[in-house]
Specification:
This protein is mainly α. Helices cover 50% and strands 0% of the residues.
Length: 58
């Protein structure tokens, strides 16, 4: 029982540390897709648009 509780506490502590890290993402606007997929209308605007709240860390 004590081992299970200790393991649960360690997992919670590790999860909190992972959530506290500052993360970065590389976002590339690509317009060179095959004709079967089709081109994006404005890939630069898509790549520079603000991220939704769950992804930007606020």
């Amino acid at each position: 029982m004590k081992k299970t509780l200790l393991l649960a506490l360690l997992l919670l502590a590790a999860a909190g540390a992972l959530l506290a890290q500052q993360r970065y993402a590389l976002i590339i606007g690509n317009n060179n897709y095959p004709a079967s997929i089709g081109a994006l209308n404005n890939p630069v605007a898509d790549a520079t648009a603000p991220l939704p709240r769950p992804f930007c860390g606020t």
